[in-house]
Amino acid sequence: MFKDCTIKYNSYQGSDEDGKPKTYNCSVQIIFPNGTMKSVPMNNDNTDYQEILAWVAEGNTIAEAD
Amino acid sequence: MALSKIDVANMLTGATPVANGGTAATTLAAAGLDKRPSSKPIIINGNMAVSQRGTSFAAVGDGVYTLDRYESAKNNDGAVTITQEALTSGNAYTDGFRTALKVDVTTADGTLAGTQRFLVQQIVEAQNLQSLKFGTANAEKLTLSFWVKATKTGTHIVRMYQYDDDRSVSIAYTVSTTNTWEKKVMNFPADTTGVIDNNNGHGIQIAWAVGAGASFQSGTLATAWAGNTSANDFVGQVNGLDSTSNNFHLTGVQLEVGEFSSATLPPFQHESFGDNLSRCQRYYYKHVDRRVSVGQSDNDMIIGKGGFNAAGQFEATVHFPVTMRTAPSLVIGNGTNYFKLYVSGTTHTFDDFQIHADHINATSLYKGGFSGIQGEAGNLVINNANAFVHFNSEL
């Protein structure tokens, strides 16, 4: 699973309840060796995200956003 | 003249109308249509007409979707290419099918060890299977029908797997003549025990084996629903992967609620291409794909219009043509300057962008790093012949 892939969070700069700038992780990016990229929402019904969670459960770590 | 009663049954069967409407229910039953749970087939893309991801898939890996709604389960030492095959002759063609899913063995695996296998499968969404009444005393039997053409004659297996309770059933069929289209009608038992949850998750997986290793064949074929035992899954399955001369073709897949024979099976429900595509788009949506030429509009294929927020991030909204099964992943072909953004007479190029919003009807694509631009509108477009933008919410 995810052999030779790069997996990291994507960050988004939004705002908090007070309107102050807030940066948070909004999705997970997978870059495959064949040039395809997936941007995966952190939604438990999404099967791509389910695979990422299974990959993490195997002891792997999602890299922080740039 | 007022219409008092419309004899729908006779319209469907082509029988001579009976005065004042006739016995509609009887005629529907005779046509085998009384058991259909809805106006739409349970199987999506049964005629293999829709293939948004492409038409040829080399060295197909495990868990890879090819033609719409058809996934491959691959674990073996060989390799196959799957194509959307155009049919021009044969029994499936004369039955009205113009496309098929073709598995072409490109690297043979003469001995499938242990858990090695290759399957072609479709997973049906759980909430679309509630009319089966599984887990109750009124559970329905099922009939699976399809056209198959295989190089390898002999015993083949179709397994149904029910996810919520880890249960399965497997039924054998025989390919009698090599490389010849044959129509199969297979009866599957009801399951009065396992309950399919009423949600948007995995319901039943229907898997056609092309080959399966010893670990799937060491028991007794599970011809009644039971807790899944892999040793009972594909007992007797021939090895369709043992030669590069081997092919396996499939089309005309239909799943009916109830027990039918080849004589009583309701006709395949041929949908318009548009209806078929719409049902596929619940699970996968090809938004823009520059690899497929559309002529004059090839340059600057538009992905979406949007604007810049205070943080120098560009955001564009994309509305999906149908409600997707769940919030989809964005799938793009990315590379150097594959995309560009037109804003106030200036062009910005970049390699990729991300998904932001988590919705089933629309989403927001965003690209950061445009410090100093704020409040402007812009157009996000394709900038490379290999770029594409798809959305995936498959099971």
Description:
- The complex is a heterodimer of chains A (66) and B (395).
- By secondary structure, chain A is α+β, with helices and mostly antiparallel strands.
- Chain A is 17% helix and 41% strand.
- Chain A has 1 helix and 3 strands.
- Chain A has one helix spanning 47-57; strands at residues 6-15, 21-31, 36-41.
- In chain A, strands 1-2-3 form a 3-stranded antiparallel beta sheet, with no helix packed on it.
- The longest helix of chain A has 11 residues, at 47-57.
- Chain A is elongated.
- With 395 residues, chain B is mainly beta.
- Chain B has 3 domains: 1-31, no CATH class; 56-281, Sandwich (Jelly Rolls); 285-392, Immunoglobulin-like (Sandwich).
- Chain B is built from 4 helices and 23 strands.
- Chain B has helices at residues 8-13, 24-30, 91-94, 273-281, and strands spanning 56-57, 64-65, 71-75, 79-86, 99-107, 117-125, 142-150, 154-162, 167-175, 182-188, 202-212, 226-227, 247-257, 284-289, 302-308, 314-319, 329-333, 339-343, 346-350, 354-355, 362-367, 377-382, 388-392.
- Chain B has a 7-stranded antiparallel beta sheet with strand order 2-3-6-11-8-9-12, with no helix packed on it.
- In chain B, a hairpin with a 2-residue loop joins strand 18 (339-343) and strand 19 (346-350).
- Chain B is globular and about 70 Å long.
- The chains are: A alpha+beta (66), B mainly beta (395).
- At the A-B interface, strand 1, strand 2, strand 3 and helix 1 of A face strand 17 and strand 20 of B.
- Strand 3 (36-41) of chain A pairs antiparallel with strand 17 (329-333) of chain B, so a sheet runs across the interface.
